[in-house]
Structure formats: C-alpha cells, structure tokens
Amino acid sequence: MTPHPAPPPQRVASIDALRGIVMTLMLAEALHLSGLGKSFPESGLAQFISFHTSHVAWEGCSLHDLIQPGFSLLVGAAVPFSIASRRARGQTFPLMFAHAIWRSLVLIFLGIFLRSLNRPITNFTFEDTLTQIGLGYPFLFLLGWTRPRWQALACALILAAYWLAFVLYPAPGPGIFAHFQKNTNFAWAFDTWFLNLFPRETAFTANGGGYSTLSFIPTLGTMIIGLLAGGFLRKPKTNNDQLRGLLLAAAGLVSSALLLQAAGVCPIVKRIWTPAFTLYSGGLVLLMLAALFAAIEIKGWRGWAFPLLVVGSNSIAAYLMSWTMEDFFSKALLRHFGHAPFAVLGPAFERTLLGAAVLSIFWLILFWLHRRKIFLKI
Asked: Could you give the residue ranges of the DSSP H alpha helices within 144-268?
C-alpha cells in the first residue's frame, strides 16, 4: 500500500530538538573543554575534543563553528511555520511585517547590549549572532512569502555577489584565496569605515578574530537555506520523502562547498562567513536535522529528546543566560562550596566540573520556565 502524505505539521519536533542541541553546545562553553588539549598533549581524544569545542583559526570548520550557523538556519526554518500560524489567526501582511521589523531592531540592539557588558561605553559592533540575524531578518521575512525557486535564486545571488565583492577588492598576495585573508579583505575595509562612524573607546582598525559586520549578508544565505528546509518540511509529504530530501540537500551543499575549496575558488572560513562556509555549514546542519528527523519523526524515539526540547523551547532565554549568568553562578558556587568539590578529578578538570554545575543550574531554570509555559520570545 502506498503511504499517503501527512498533512502539513504545525511543529516539527526534530527542529525543536536541533535547536536544543545548538543551544546546549553554546551553553557548554562553560565546560572549558577546549583547554583539554593543552592539559593532555599526548591524548588524541583530548585533541579531538579541544578542536571541536573551539573555533578554528581561519580555514576549516569544527563542531563549535556550527553553533551560529545552526542558530541562524533554525531562524529561517521557523519562518514558514510562523507565517502559516499568524495567517491562520487572521493577521495581515502589514502587521506581520511590522513585527518582523520590530524583531529585527530588538535583535540588533540586544546583540550590541550584550557585547557592551563590562565596557565603559556602548560597544558598537555587529558580529554578534543576534545582531547578524537581526540585520538580515526583514529580508528573510519577505522571502518567506515567495516561492521556493525564488528563495533559492536569492540565496545564490547573495552568495555570488558576496564572493565577487571579495574577489574584486585588492588582495595582499597572489591567488583567489588571498582575497579572503584575515583583516585584509573587503569586509575588513568596510568595517574600518563603518564602525568608526560610531563613538568608540579607540578607533577601529581590525577585529582580533577577523569577524565582520558584512557577514550578515551570507548569514542571510544560511537563513534562506533554513527557510527552504522549513517550507519543505511543511509540505504534505511522507516522512521518508522528507528525510530523503533533507539528505540530498545536505549532500549537495557539502559537496558543492568542498568542490569550491578544492578548486581554489572560495575557502571555507567561518569568521568572514565565506559562501563556501555558508554551503558547508548549512549542509552539515541539515545533516544533523535529518538524523534527528529519522530518530524522532520516523522511528518515534521522542523521550530522549525532552532535555533538548527544554533548552530549545527557550533559546533566547538560554542565550541571555550564557552571557549574563555564567560568571555569577560560578562565583556563587565557589563562594559557598569552595574549590574542593570541583577539583576531585585534578586541576585539569576543575573548570569542567564547575561548568557542569553551572549548566545544571541553567537547565533547572529552563525546566522551571518550561513547566510553567514561560517562553521568552521576541
């Protein structure tokens, strides 16, 4: 018997679970696992863990580098469901677009606010995850009203234009990859003008990590990939067809990125969000989504994902907690319990055990909010 397509879902549990994984990976910075490689230089496992819990220096990609693309892609994936829900409640396009503008402004200013903590004056910088999403969100929302082919075309044009802008900017050396080096590229040149339009402690000359304001443009490309995925999962298809589509899209994106890198056309660099990185990270995040889709939607294995759903359902709250509460709880735990409970495995793991305690407190707070159906939304 041929399976009949299911009606379009209002929510997809695997999307919520993936959001929980992404936010948990971000909160897990409190574990300070990236330092294990230095503590155990002879351990291959320690080196592996260190690599995947920190950002790569420039070219390449670690698991840690997928946190921001994952968050961004999931913002896009939520748009088709949000638009459908709001239309069902009778909201008009002008009202929804006004809300999109409001959400954009809140995200931009919230990102600036968080980056200004412990600074003497406002730190006008725009590479924060929330700010990057906010800068592109109105365009994402408008694309949410178009057909998938136009969304895909918009993504392709955005990435091509971004690549061309870098290639046309004078490079410090030979070869195309020279156009994508740290703090000598088109995005860096833009920031040396743009960021100095704002009041600053000192004039901006370079970002220590090489991050840039203009990364919001290819980040929009990442969000469009999520938009396409969310729209696809809303279609009345069988679960097997949807899984197959996710796997094909993931394979196509990853292979395209690797081909661009191998051909010397565009490197995979997260810090300036190159087009190849957009494709590569987008494909890997879709692969993660496909794995969760197979486990939760097809196999029906849902119980194990509950801790992730608790975190993913309050992603903004989790994000704010990571910025504002980690130091507070770390100091409070040391103040009341001392160092001894966290040093039982030796000095190398003291910060990890302390971070695990902080993460437990974070989860209990999010669980309390979840039980009372309190969800922080913008």
From this structure: 148-168, 186-194, 216-234, 239-262
Task: Assign 257 a pLDDT band (cuts: 50, 70, 90).
Answer: very high
- As a whole number of angstroms, the distance between CA 90 and CA 161 comes to 37
Is the pLDDT at 220 greater than 90? The verdict is yes
Its pTM surpasses 0.90: yes
SS3 92: coil
| CA proximity to 289, closest of 230, 234, 235, 370 | 230
* Cα gap 39→13, rounded to integer Å: 39
Instruction: Write out pLDDT tens, residues 228-238.
Output: 999 999 988 89
C-alpha to C-alpha distance for 154 and 23, rounded to whole angstroms: 28
Contact present, 207 and 56 (Cβ < 8 Å): no
d(CA 96, CA 276): 33
pLDDT digits (tens, 9 = 90+) for 117-128: 989 999 999 999
| Longest distance between any two alpha carbons in the chain, whole Å | 70
- Residue 198: helix, strand or coil by DSSP? coil
**Which CA distances in Å does 348 have to 30, 40, 42?**
14, 9, 14
Q: Which of 104, 312, 122, 338 is nearest to 223 (CA)?
A: 104
Question: In the predicted model, is pLDDT for residue 1 greater than 70?
Answer: no
User: Is pLDDT of 46 > 90?
Assistant: yes
Side-chain half-sphere exposure of 340, counting CA atoms within 13 A = 3
Q: Which alpha helices (H) appear in the chain, and where do they start and end?
A: 13-27, 36-39, 44-52, 67-88, 93-115, 129-143, 148-168, 186-194, 216-234, 239-262, 275-293, 306-312, 315-324, 326-337, 350-371
| Tally of CB atoms within 10 A around 376 | 13
Q: What are the structure tokens assigned to 219, written together? A: 């980040």
- For tokens 């230095």, the residue is 38
* Residue of 23, 87, 107, 173 whose CA lies nearest to 377: 107
